Amino acid sequence: MHGRLACGRPLVVRLASEKLLEEDSSHDRSKRLLPEAAKRTRFVSGSSSGQMSRGDKVAAIKNKLKALEEDEKLDPKKQKR
């Protein structure tokens, strides 16, 4: 399969262990490139979906739906997307 064309692009076949080594090295490199302040605030902000618990995600969705419903009540002529 290595080198065959798929949708006009050559396929690259690697062992899973090679991919893990490649990902680990890219993670180490990205950690070094982040400034210290960004390292501290990156996970504290909670903006990353991976850091939110399932309950937090559900609460955020409910709050957004409630806000959308209130906006619709205030301006019913507003077009829906």
Automatic annotation (TrEMBL):
<feature type="region of interest" description="Disordered">
    <location>
        <begin position="20"/>
        <end position="57"/>
    </location>
</feature>
<feature type="compositionally biased region" description="Basic and acidic residues">
    <location>
        <begin position="20"/>
        <end position="39"/>
    </location>
</feature>
<protein>
    <submittedName>
        <fullName>Uncharacterized protein</fullName>
    </submittedName>
</protein>
